[in-house]
Amino acid sequence: IFTRFKTALRELDFAKNYQYNIINEEVDTAVEDVKEIIAVSKKRSSFLMEFREDFKKDIERFLRDKNV
After folding, report:
1. Which of 9, 18, 44, 65 has the lowest CB atom count within 10 Å?
2. What is the 3-state secondary structure (H, E, C) of the chain?
3. Long-range contacts of 36-41 (CB under 8 A, 24+ apart)
4. pTM of the predicted model as reported, rounded to 2 decimal places
5. pLDDT tens, residue by residue, 2-55
6. CB-based contacts of 9: which residues, under 8 Å, 6+ apart?
7. Which residues contact 17 (CB under 8 A, 6 or more apart)?
8. Is residue 39 packed enough to be buried (19+ CB in 10 Å), middle (13-18) or exposed (0-12)?
9. Environment class of residue 7 by beta-carbon count within 10 Å: exposed (0-12), middle (13-18) or buried (19+)?
């Protein structure tokens, strides 16, 4: 899950840094991955809850940047 999230962030940052239209398949897939990570982390405790807290700001930034 950690790897998927970090990959999703990299994909979004790449699209933004190069001023590509963010609406593309890779970034849309990344957004879906992040949504899934958030959904799973809300259902479970222990590691996933810690993950959600540790990366909450990154997740919020990702969703804000994508306007999800």
Report:
1. 18
2. CHHHHHHHHHHHHHHHHCCCCCCCHHHHHHHHHHHHHHHHHHHCCCHHHHHHHHCHHHHHHHHHHHCC
3. 37/1, 37/4, 37/5, 40/1
4. 0.40
5. 676 677 777 767 766 665 555 566 667 777 777 777 777 666 655 555 555 656
6. 30, 58, 62
7. none
8. exposed
9. middle
- Integer Cα distance of 55 and 10 in angstroms: 14
Task: Quickly tell me which residue has 């962030």 as its tokens.
Answer: 9
Amino acid at 54: D
Q: Tokens 């979004």 appear where? A: 12
Q: Return the residue matching tokens 């405790």.
A: 45
Report whether pLDDT(66) > 70: no
> Could you identify the residue written with the tokens 């849309």?
28
